[in-house]
Amino acid sequence: MRPGAVVRTARGDSLLDLGDIALSVNALISDASLVRAAEMRAAGALDENLPGLVPADLAAPLTPGKILCLGYNYRGHTPDGVDPRADDPEYPDVFVKTPNTVAGPNDAVVIPAGAQDVDYEGELAVVIGARARNVAIEDAMSHVAGFTILNDVSDRAWQRRQSQWALGKCSDGFAPIGPWIVTVDEAPNPQEMLVEVVRDGRITVSQSTSTTIFSVAFVVSHISQVLTLEPGDVISTGTPQKLAHAQAAHRPLAPGDAVTVRITGLGELTTRFVAAQPESPAAESFPEGTA
Amino acid sequence: MRPGAVVRTARGDSLLDLGDIALSVNALISDASLVRAAEMRAAGALDENLPGLVPADLAAPLTPGKILCLGYNYRGHTPDGVDPRADDPEYPDVFVKTPNTVAGPNDAVVIPAGAQDVDYEGELAVVIGARARNVAIEDAMSHVAGFTILNDVSDRAWQRRQSQWALGKCSDGFAPIGPWIVTVDEAPNPQEMLVEVVRDGRITVSQSTSTTIFSVAFVVSHISQVLTLEPGDVISTGTPQKLAHAQAAHRPLAPGDAVTVRITGLGELTTRFVAAQPESPAAESFPEGTA
User: Fold this and answer.
1) Chain B residues with CB inside 8 Å of A223's CB?
2) Comparing C-alpha atoms, which of A41, A141, A58 is closest to residue A103?
3) Of A215, B21, B125, B205, which residue is most buried, by most CB within 10 angstroms?
4) For A194-236, what is each residue's pLDDT tens digit?
5) What distance in Å separates residue B38's CA from the closest CA in chain A?
């Protein structure tokens, strides 16, 4: 499994195998000169018939330092469900997904044994490329390396049990991300992307990022007023509401299901859901008497 | 700055300089044989008059993989303030602090320029020592390496602005941790520790962990039903309510304040709060035209 990025080359947009350039993705995205070098090398290398990266070989495109996620960032998607007349909130609602949630575009996601109501959320994810602290909205995009897709998988039963959502959001593998990073210069305007989700062959979500309440630039600037964003951090910008027919027909994800999230210019991220394996016979623990 | 742990030696409890054993703390705590080796080496080394570790040199005792925190885990501390008659909740309320929040016992914490209502929370923090997934309550303590103190610094203004608390909990340095890790075999019963906070020379919090709703063993087991706990992860077990006089006299933390959290058997963690420095003249960003 190897991480990938889409770059412009002499032959047009190409999928660059970041594993071949012997650099961590986090190091790469934090240094624009390395990005340029990689692009140039990819352009040259492709001319020398470097094998293209096979999508089935892709790993998660980066290991985020932190994953900050927005709730209720599309107009009409409110804490009480769907209310197209709701006023815009004054501030984004921000929560965290832990590092164990990261899954690659070819990883199946395990539905935990006790999970009763697992759901998907197709989201535009922003990859930070340069440290950001107290940046102005007009400068915010210069701190963004690129975009990718994140499926904010959620266990609604856990999410509902208490005020804070961590246990509903942080099961292992609950943040499939990818399939690659599209750098800002290669990507469409992030406020003009269509976010769609396909489940069981039907489109269940279809809404433009033009209907977000808080733009990418606003969100980067806003969060940077509170904490330092580092290269490799990811901000996932929230999910649109499901379409009416999908809300009516909704059932929790089950083993065997697959969900595809596709976003204009970013490709598509398909995640298969599988059952938890029976417990391994011996859980790791300290030897008797040492703790 | 060096990380420390308290270990038993031939001369009694001693502060072990983990920096001298050429191992990362995370590697150390994940391997009981290394803990034993370190103890033995420390015992021997002390007999050879190894200089003791100076508390003023201590760094954060570990770099947590993830920091999971509990809200409202002491009886009487409820979402609406203090209500001694409130029923116990059925589940712990869990949220996340991001890696940028970690501060060592000798680090000052910056009150962000825009912060209006910064507060302290003195908490018993549990350091995971062995991977935990779906562990039973009776096995949970075998997955714990030790304990330390965490000050869950919070910006109440941000915390109140939306349903999720991330922006109120995740400013840089908002999780001072230390002063060291006390291994389970050296520590008192975690359900019989007195948690106290001293501010301006007065005790503002004084409550035993015997009044927590969810025990350490329960919390480790419970969280492990939802996600995998890894060596080096930290679970902070929530704060007691402030004493009545401290609630009446409470004012937000300001530059120049110092807060000491002390817990039976774990030592004390004093954190100084300082003003934000004026912005550095040039924020980092990509060179013009590259992003």
Assistant:
1) 167
2) A58
3) B125
4) 999 999 899 999 999 999 999 999 999 999 999 999 999 999 9
5) 13
Those residues whose C-beta lies under 8 Å from the C-beta of residue A267, and which sit 6 or more positions away, are A6, A149, A179, A180, A182
A39-48, A167-176, B126-135, range with the lowest pLDDT: A39-48
Q: Among partner residues A65, A144, A171, which is closest to B291 by beta-carbon distance?
A: A144
Question: Residue B163: what pLDDT?
Answer: 95
B157 and A CB contact within 8 Å = no
Eight-state DSSP code of residue B54:
P
Task: Report yes or no: B231 at the A interface, CB cutoff 8 Å.
Answer: no
Q: Across the A/B interface, how many CB contacts are shorter than 8 Å?
A: 178
Q: CB-based burial of residue A265 (10 Å sphere; 0-12 exposed, 13-18 middle, 19+ buried)?
A: middle
Q: What angle do CA A286, B136, A104 make, to 5 degrees?
A: 80
A78 neighbourhood in chain B, CB within 8 Å? none
Give the closest-approach CA distance of A145 to chain B in angstroms.
Answer: 6
Torsion of CA B189, B191, B193, B198, to 10 degrees: 150
Q: Is B160 on the interface with A (CB under 8 A)?
A: no
Instruction: Please check the confidence at residue A278 and state whether its pLDDT lies above 80.
Output: no
Query: Does A134 sit within 8 Å of B113, measured CB to CB?
Result: yes
Inter-chain contact B185–A144, Cβ cutoff 8 Å?
no
The minimal CB distance from A130 to the residues B98, B166, B286 is found for B286
Q: What does the pLDDT look like over B270-282, one tens digit per residue?
A: 999 999 987 654 4
The pLDDT assigned to A58 comes to 85
Query: Does A137 contact B at CB distance below 8 Å?
Result: no
pLDDT per position as a tens digit, A123-139? 999 999 999 999 999 99
Asked if A139 has any chain B CB less than 8 Å from its own CB, the reply is yes
3-state secondary structure of B168: helix
What pLDDT score does B242 carry? 94
- Here the ipTM equals 0.85
Provide the Cα torsion A263, A269, A270, A274; round to 10°: -130
Structural domains of chain B sorted by starting position, each given as residue range(s) with its CATH number in brackets: 4-56 (no CATH), 62-275 (3.90.850.10)
Question: Which residue has 């714990």 as its token pair?
Answer: B144
Given CB atoms, is B209 within the 8 Å cutoff of chain A? Answer: no
At A136-170, the pLDDT tens digits run 999 999 999 999 999 999 999 999 999 999 999 99
- Type of residue at A206: S
Pick from B94, B35, B91, B27: which is nearest to B67 by CA? B94
Nearest to A227 among B94, B131, B170 (CB): B170
Cβ separation B66–A112 shorter than 8 A = no
Distance, in angstroms, between B249 CA and closest chain A CA?
Answer: 27
